[in-house]
Each structure stands twice: as structure tokens, then as C-alpha cells.
């Protein structure tokens, strides 16, 4: 047996204070240049506290065959294994808790720094007062409408207020009833973002959303979905 092998079983006895004074001094000298033994002692450092929480029944349960002496080597090994397993579980739970806390902190910071990522814009007051823009008539129609554009991080919401008037007095024999809201981009793209049924003498408040930023929108149109005819338009 090499001198190093001689100390392999001294760690638990050292932690429990079971070494004689001379052996304890000898082992401490050995620890100064043996990393593996220092690691073993560190892992077992919590055993005295754990043992202090065990009552006689728990110790007996670990050593059913021979209750005397109360801590045979195999019993001590079982206790050590329990301590190490408990430390591993505690370490894993701590890491998981830290990860959850970090994720929640990141989410909170993102909500504060970039609220638009969650559909919230820091410019709430500005959006609440978005002006209504009157739409110009492109075709003869009794419909009057205004639009308001609200910008978000993900795009733009467009709200429209339509007043249809009395279609019975319109010179058109079959006025359009199926209506739509169309967004025209500066790049020439067109997308219909809302449809609704127009009724004579009624008022409607349709709204729609587009991924285009407000600055990328060239015009908003109110169209007849039956034939695509543009009835009203607001150039931006």
C-alpha cells in the first residue's frame, strides 16, 4: 500500500473527529498536497450536521442487522451516499431556480426596454391621440369615412369610421354593400385587411392590421369587394 492509499479511508473519520490527535495532524499535512483528499473532505463536510438530525430509529433503519455499534462502516457509507445525493439535488434545484429567475428578469427587462415586442408601444399617449384623417371620394358614393393609423413594433393598426348615408337616394341602382379596407404600400403592394357589410343609413367602425410600418403605407382605400372598385382613398 502506498502512502497515498493509506489515507483514502481517513476522510470520513477526519470530518467526524474520530482520528487521534497525531493521526489528525498527519492527515492535515497530507491534505496540503493531495487535491483528491481535500475534495473528499469538502464533500463530506456536511455529515456532522446531517448526523445531528438523525434519531436512533433512523440510524437503526440503516443498520437493521446489527444495531451495535450504531455506525458500522457500511452504515457510514450509506449516510455519506445520502448526503452526496442530497447535495446533488440541492445543487440542481438551485441551478433551476436561478435559470427561472434569470428568464423572468430577461422577460421583465424586454417588456420595459422593448414593449413593442409584446404588442405594447411606449408611445401610448401619442397613439391614443392618433388623428382621424378624412378619406377622399374616388367614385360617386354616399359613403363618408375617416381613418386613423397607429404604429406598433410589429406593424400598423388602422381604424376606420364609416357613415353610409341613405343609399335609397343614391343614383346608383345597386350600391355596393360588401366593403373592404385595402392598404397600398409605397412598393406597389396591395393587401385587403378587413371586410364588412355596409347597410344604408348605418355607421360602421371596421379595423384591421398590417405588418407594414406606417411610413411604408402609401394609401388606405375603401373598396367594393364585389368588383374591386375604389370608393374612398386617403393618400399618406
Q: What does this molecule look like?
A:
- With 236 residues, the chain is an alpha+beta fold.
- The protein folds into two domains: 93 residues, Anti-sigma factor, zinc-finger domain (Arc Repressor Mutant, subunit A); 111 residues, Sandwich (Immunoglobulin-like), CATH 2.60.40.
- The protein contains eight helices and ten strands.
- Strands 1, 3, 4, 7 and 8 form a five-stranded antiparallel beta sheet that branches. Strands 2-10-9-5-6 form a five-stranded antiparallel beta sheet, with no helix packed on it.
Per CATH, which architecture of the largest domain? Sandwich
Radius of gyration: 39 Å
**Low-pLDDT windows of residues:** 121-128, 169-174
By secondary-structure content and strand pairing, the structural class works out as: alpha+beta
Query: Mean of residue pLDDT?
Result: 75
Using the coordinates above, name the CATH class of the largest domain: Mainly Beta
Strand coverage percent: 15-25%
The SSE string, one letter per element, is HHHHHHHHEEEEEEEEEE
**CATH third-level topology of the largest domain:** Immunoglobulin-like
Helix content: 25-40%
User: Distance between the terminal alpha carbons, to the nearest Å?
Assistant: 91 Å
Pfam family, one: zf-HC2
Domain Putative zinc-finger: 13-38
Keywords: Membrane, Transcription, Transcription regulation, Transmembrane, Transmembrane helix
Transmembrane segments: 92-113
Amino acid at each position: 500500500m502506498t502512502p497515498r492509499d493509506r489515507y483514502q479511508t481517513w476522510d470520513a473519520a477526519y470530518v467526524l473527529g474520530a482520528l487521534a490527535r497525531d493521526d489528525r495532524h498527519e492527515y492535515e499535512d497530507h491534505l496540503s498536497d493531495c487535491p483528491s483528499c481535500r475534495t473528499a473532505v469538502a464533500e463530506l463536510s456536511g455529515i456532522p450536521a446531517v448526523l445531528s438530525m438523525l434519531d436512533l430509529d433512523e440510524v437503526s433503519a440503516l443498520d437493521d442487522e446489527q444495531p451495535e455499534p450504531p455506525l458500522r462502516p457500511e452504515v457510514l457509507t450509506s449516510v455519506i451516499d445520502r448526503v452526496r445525493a442530497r447535495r446533488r439535488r440541492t445543487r440542481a434545484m438551485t441551478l433551476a431556480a436561478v435559470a427561472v429567475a434569470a428568464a423572468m428578469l430577461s422577460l421583465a427587462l424586454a417588456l420595459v426596454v422593448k414593449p413593442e415586442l409584446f404588442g405594447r408601444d411606449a408611445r401610448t399617449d401619442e397613439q391614443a391621440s392618433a388623428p382621424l384623417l378624412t378619406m377622399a371620394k374616388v367614385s360617386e358614393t354616399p359613403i363618408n369615412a375617416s381613418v386613423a393609423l397607429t404604429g406598433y413594433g410589429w406593424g400598423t393598426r388602422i381604424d376606420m369610421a364609416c357613415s353610409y348615408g341613405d343609399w335609397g337616394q343614391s343614383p346608383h341602382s345597386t350600391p355596393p354593400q360588401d366593403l373592404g379596407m385595402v392598404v397600398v404600400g409605397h412598393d406597389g403592394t396591395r393587401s385587403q385587411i378587413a371586410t364588412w357589410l355596409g347597410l344604408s343609413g348605418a355607421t360602421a367602425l371596421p379595423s384591421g392590421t398590417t405588418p407594414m410600418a406606417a411610413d411604408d403605407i402609401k394609401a388606405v382605400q375603401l373598396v367594393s369587394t364585389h368588383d374591386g372598385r375604389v370608393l374612398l382613398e386617403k393618400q399618406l
